[in-house]
Design brief:
With 426 residues, this protein is an alpha+beta fold. It is built from twelve helices and twelve strands. It has a four-stranded mixed beta sheet. Strands 1-4-12 form a three-stranded antiparallel beta sheet, with no helix packed on it. Helix 1 runs parallel beside helix 7, helix 2 packs parallel to helix 5 and helix 2 runs antiparallel to helix 7. The longest helix is centred in the first third of the chain and has 21 residues.
């Protein structure tokens, strides 16, 4: 039986809140002010930011209802993306409210948002209320920050966050080595038209078709074990050490959301490095990073130019297709999900890590910012310093797997759950 729209959205939000609360419950309460990544705020900020964003967009934004708690509405309104730690220090504050006060604000904001769902659904004079776009926006914002929390967990001191028994341990193995596969020339579609999808972020519009020449692509991402061989072949490997690796004496470990694991466990996982480091590896292999258009063609087209909603075809995303949607809380060895292969046999185009591309993040033709609610969501990052990342990681919710969804990171940023593969010109 189909739920009435109001009940549907309450259930969707409540399910998202439950996962957020689970993640925060893994963090000791006395660690809320810890800041494991200097480029980001302490954990406490995100505890307040998620409810503040929801109220600011729905209550203060499209409904014009004013402040819920002016001090907290403003304090937790917006995160940061500085170039360096010095810029981050200038962008944060030295005194934060208590955890109890922020939790009380969170609960009040959630109640207020749930109480306004009917009003949002009844509005016909605002494009963000149409198709419940503002509810999609708030929901997806929280889903994206769940991933941010998890890669912040990975930077915490070992032993701070323990894996609960309800979460399966990591899969180990060498994974499968990549094979070079030729992708035929043809069109790639990037983005979507406004009325084509129920919701998209401003950078997903408008839809554009790009002619892509033939190219070759590794069938799988580069593994930790591949990166180790690259380091051993390099005369000056110090700048190429992944931030995701830890060295302790003669032993090597790889970071995870639940603390470091021995390298032998993670050797077959996709290596997590910055975009600049990924470019260096590709050059060493005589290749390059693929472009956004090339990965869009590989993932969502076939040799006859037919469009596909997913790399594997029409079937809805399922655990057999890839490591995404929190099916696991760790990367998987490469080649674990052959059912997710594209029409040419390239695997893992979705899941296991956001793939670095060589494409600077920029607007699509006809781009219009969400000026009425979130004008800086995309436009603040059209600066030539951020590159598009493609696909999804294991911590990416299924809702974000649509072909038009676009993500990006500063190319020097080493913390996110990223991967990459090598491409070559034909």
């Amino acid at each position: 039986m189909t739920l009435p729209l109001e009940s549907f959205w309450k259930e969707k939000l409540d399910t998202t809140y439950q996962r957020t609360d689970l993640l925060f419950s893994l963090l000791p309460r006395d660690a809320m002010l810890e800041r494991p990544i200097g480029l980001r705020h302490p954990f406490l900020f995100y505890l307040g930011h998620l409810p503040a964003f929801a109220w600011n967009q729905i209550g203060r934004g499209v409904l014009g209802a004013g402040h819920l708690d002016e001090a907290f509405d403003v304090l937790f309104e917006r995160g940061i993306d500085p170039k360096d730690d010095q810029g981050a220090r200038r962008s944060t504050i030295s005194s934060w409210p208590s955890v109890s006060a922020v939790l009380a604000y969170r609960d009040e904001a959630r109640r207020a948002v749930r109480a306004r769902i009917r009003e949002v659904l009844g509005r016909a004079d605002d494009p963000l209320c149409e198709n419940a776009r503002i509810l999609h926006l708030v929901l997806e914002h929280e889903l994206m920050h769940q991933e941010t929390l998890l890669y912040m967990f990975a930077e915490c001191r070992p032993g701070l966050i323990s894996r609960p028994a309800s979460i399966a341990p990591p899969e180990s193995g060498k994974g499968r080595a990549a094979e070079r596969i030729r992708i035929s020339a043809g069109d790639a579609v990037i983005g979507a038209a406004w009325d084509e999808i129920p919701f998209g972020w401003d950078n997903e519009f408008g839809r554009t078709t790009v002619s892509v020449g033939a190219f070759s692509l590794d069938s799988l991402p580069v593994r930790n074990i591949d990166w180790l061989a690259f380091l051993r072949a390099n005369d000056d490997p110090s700048s190429l050490l992944p931030r995701s690796w830890i060295h302790s004496g003669a032993r090597r470990f790889v970071k995870t959301a639940f603390g470091p694991v021995p390298f032998e466990v993670a050797e077959g996982w996709p290596v997590q490095v910055s975009g600049e480091q990924a470019r260096a590896y590709c050059a060493h292999r005589g290749g390059r990073l693929p472009t956004e258009a090339e990965l869009c063609r590989a993932a969502f087209a076939a040799p006859d130019d037919a469009r596909r909603p997913h790399p594997w075809g029409d079937a809805a995303p399922a655990p057999c297709h890839g490591n995404f949607d929190f099916a696991r809380f760790f990367p998987s060895p490469t080649g674990t999900h052959p059912a997710g292969a594209n029409a040419w046999g390239v695997e893992e185009l979705v899941g296991n890590g956001w793939e670095w591309t060589s494409t600077p993040f920029s607007p699509l033709p006809g781009f219009v910012p969400y000026a009425w609610t979130y004008p800086g969501y995309s436009a603040d990052f059209f600066d030539g310093e951020h590159d598009v990342v493609f696909g999804a990681s294991w911590a990416t919710d299924e809702k974000l797997l649509r072909p038009s969804f676009r993500n990006w990171y500063r190319r020097t940023y080493p913390y996110a759950f990223t991967s990459f593969r090598v491409a070559w010109d034909e």
